[in-house]
Amino acid sequence: MKNFYKIFGFSTLVLTLLAPFFVFAASPTNEGVASPYEVLVVYNSAYNTDSNNDSVQDSLEIASYYKSARSIPDANIVGIDMPTTLAITRSQYNSYIKSPLESYLNNNNLKDTIKYIVFVKGVPMKVYDTSGNANNYSNVTGDYASVDSSTTLLFQDSYIGTSAQVANPYYNVDPDFSLNYRFKQNTFGDSNYKISYLVTRLDGYTVSDVEGMIDRASSADKTASGYFVIDQYSGGNNFSFDSMSSATKNLKFLGKNIYPEPFTKGGSAIKNIAQNVIGYTSYGTYGGLGNNYYNNELNLSYLNGAVASTYESYSAFSMTEPDNTNHGQIAQFIRAGGSGGIGNVYEPFSLAIARENIWMPAYSVGYTWADAAYMSLPYIDWTTIVFGDPLMSIVSDGLSQPSVSIKNYTNISNGSVTLNATINNTGGESNNVKGFVYGKTNDYGSFVFNSGSFGAGDYSIDLSGLDCGTTYYYRAYGTNSFRSGYSSEGSFTTSVCAVPAIDTGSVSDTTVSGATLYANILDVGQSNVTERGFELGIDTNYGIKVYDSGSFGSGNYSVVVDNLECNTLYHYRAYALNSVGYGYGDDRTFATGYNCKPSITTGSSIYNNGSYTLNAGITSVGGDSVSERGFDVGLDLSYGLNVKQTGVFGGSFGYLSKFGSYGSANGEFDQPRAVAVDSSGNIYVADRLNHRIQKFDSNGNFITKWGNYGTGNGKISYPQDVVIDSNNNVYVSDYDNSRITKFSSSGTYSTKWGSFGSGNGQFMPAYDLAIDKDNNIYVADRNNNRVQKFDSNGNYIMQFGSYGNGDGQFVFPSGILVDGSGYIYVTDENNRIQKFNSNGVFVAKTGGSGNTNGSFINPQGMAFDQVGNIYVAELSNSRIQKISTNGLFSINVNNLNCGANYNYRAYAVNSIGTAYGANKTFTVPVCPGKVTTDSVTNITNGSARLSATITDFGGETPSIRGFEIGTDTSYGKTTNNTPEKTSIPLGQYIANVKGLTCNTTYNYRSYSKNSAGMFYGLNKTFKTATCP
């Protein structure tokens, strides 16, 4: 599946929901349970296939079977004479399906009665653009859709078929899964259009398969015993992982059965579980499962009413065997015992895939299958088909959610508490779960519960392992087969902690690389100390930890530290750990010895027109400034060639400081994605999964923050990048909302621009940002494979780029910077950096783990400060590092041997000594050689002996050598490519040329060839002897 949009998100009540790309106002419908009188069944009266030879064509047979199973009124069954092909054009759709259906609904007074339209086998599945391919569609534009999805917009003539997709106004209308938004025709939408009907399909490989699906839907399991299988195995991405994780949290919050629990990422595909399955999602063939895995690999037991969707393209490619695709097919799931599913007739793209974090919980609380499925679809008039009985439900009618209230907590300590509650009303049946959700915020996050069969009454559960001196929030809940009911919120605060008291002592025995640190444990606190030691580093973020483990009482201790940088000021503080937590002493400092050599790192080598540029970085000058720096170069490790720079050199290249840690409090990060620095040195961080911008001073001290998840003005959903203009205005790339939002430096909302799409000023999605000296904004429009330029108010100026790997083309551009001269630099998945001028004209290109200080895991956005230091946002380490760059240097090396392998190492000299970087190697490309045309001997009236000498092989033995000869300098004849061997020295060769014309002057020149190309000697002449 093409992955051109990634979506993540959270709901306030239900913990986690994917964010919509669009917002439609929706009010509760409070509709009752759907009835057979609200269903219209449509079959193809022109369908002639009778696959089971019972004298009834298949389309009519399935319609009649479903009519009988659900007691559908006679007037609600209609046969239409339509094409029998799998795919039809939009014109055919309008003539043979849309127009007859609208007429039938109007003429039979059903237009406002019907909620659900059911197509059966034989009705065409696909609408295709006549300019494209009916069976192999993979573009985002063009009039491609499923027949079913288009039919949701009957009577909406101004919208149906007018674009590649239409926003679904029924999408995510009930984020709390309240069951108050059952579908009602012509209710969901706005003044432009409303969704008319929900359309499902009864189809499969055979009539028997479809009738089995109908039978299972009519007797769907309503015991709430089924499990929702959420299989996040190999093959996923951030979008799908967040969606699956969100589905797990939503179902768990509703008290439903989930597998696996806890939710896991990666590993092997789930192929066999003991529990019965009611819902299934996975990556299918994209995660390594084979063709027809529902029947060949999955050994799952499906309850009646089981449904599925997967992250696969073309999962409803056809309902005919063989289906000509290696993607998992809904038809295969139906044959394996499924009762319904969601598939796609064409490439759906990640942006429009069904959201299992919506359909799974919606289906589980009692929405019909049609309602739950369509709630999960971001778009209609698109490629999706919902298979199954629209009336299918897995919850008994008449149930309500339990009523639960909390009572006063008891037995509180510094790490435990007893929570008490009452089930006031079970909601119509015994509760199978009762418990509490709790956490340090009202997002909760932790569950504790008892399973069984419970009536109304009091219950209590003990919590342990809590943090001391901490406020917790909690709610009680009870769960029946309908859903969970929650109490109002309560809170409690655990008792104050007792950590060790410790004093940071002095330092002794300081050397250029180490010292002895002292401390005194004044009081062990709540229990004996199990770990004691020191934190130290070049700032108060520390980063180095030295310690002893064991069981310690109060008193003095010391620790020797080594492998430190010389001539460096270190901060340190003592710490001790007991069962409650860490106690820390005050921060103190010491400096390592002064007399040390420099530290240097050997960098890359870059070939350029016959010479090599060697790069290195002095990470520390040591005890004195560097007086000489350079490289040793040679054909072996004895080197022999020295290139250098002399003078007085300072500076460094490497780690300076860091700040931040994982979390959601002020100064904490959850996947920091980008960083920017304003004219005052203040630092702005795009805190991605916390949906906010945080502002710090230049030392990393928190100043303020703004933004939270949503779509309104000032809201931010997954900030991707942040840049600052010369007036200190802040621009944020709002990934999930496909827009750019502008704020003041204090976070006040100013303006926004952009929406999802591929037009001028639209994004798919907005990715990284850059800003030039005139405050123009450049946006890496990732999945449109282009860069767009805007002024500071969001007015569109220009764009450049297209899909491909040629100069000026992109494959998913991500990073973008603009230098002081207006040149634009763009990275993309072609693994290169391209340089453009300010008009977007291509200029040039180049290109072709750890958590310690100075190392990275998944570094992302970068920004310069006023003196050239770089701030780097690390996605996986949840921190910002500050990197110095002023110790870098480069030297060119010339006159190298062609085709030779060279060793090189960087070095730096100060008054204490010489330091060397690691040895590295490079290989000089092969050059064209040199050949000399020698004189002619043995001249007769018809022959001559030509000779030549290869004086320079160019680093490689030639593959061809010879002569060109002729009566003028266009020659016309060459000698044998394998000249005669003689005893002449290596490099010389001869050729005896025969068949010449007597008394004639000839031009000749030598030539040879290696992998660098052909090379020639000078032209010479000779004259054959006179004719006899």
Task: Tell me the total number of β-strands.
Answer: 67
User: How big is the Rg?
Assistant: 37 Å
Strand content: 35-45%
Largest pleated sheet: 10 strands, mixed
Low-confidence stretches: 1-23, 977-984
Number of helices: 9
SS-derived structural category: mainly beta
Q: Roughly what percent helix?
A: under 10%
From the spread of the alpha carbons, the general shape counts as: flat
Distance between the termini: 83 Å
Main sheet: which strands, in order across? 2-1-4-8-15-13-12-11-9-10
Mean pLDDT: 85
Describe this structure in words.
The protein is mainly β. Helices cover 9% and strands 39% of the residues. The chain contains 9 helices and 67 strands. α1 (58-70) runs parallel beside α4 and α5 (238-253) runs parallel beside α8. 44% of the residues are buried.
Summary tags:
1028 residues, 5-stranded antiparallel beta sheet, mainly beta, flat, 10-stranded mixed beta sheet, disordered N terminus
Walk me through the topology.
Elements (H helix, E strand, L loop, with lengths): L38 E6 L13 H13 L6 E4 L6 E3 H18 L8 E5 L5 E3 L16 E2 H5 L14 E2 L30 E5 L4 H12 L8 E4 L7 H16 L3 E3 L16 E7 L10 H4 L4 E10 L19 H6 L4 E5 L11 H10 L3 H7 L3 E2 L3 E5 L14 E8 L6 E9 L5 E9 L6 E9 L2 E7 L7 E9 L4 E3 L3 E4 L7 E8 L6 E9 L5 E9 L6 E9 L2 E7 L7 E9 L4 E3 L3 E4 L7 E10 L2 E10 L5 E9 L5 E10 L4 E6 L12 E6 L5 E5 L4 E5 L5 E5 L12 E6 L5 E5 L4 E5 L5 E5 L12 E6 L5 E5 L4 E5 L5 E5 L15 E3 L5 E5 L3 E5 L5 E6 L11 E6 L5 E5 L4 E6 L3 E6 L7 E9 L4 E3 L3 E4 L6 E4 L9 E10 L7 E7 L6 E2 L13 E7 L6 E10 L2 E4 L3 E4 L5
Helix pairs in contact: 1-4, 5-8, 8-9
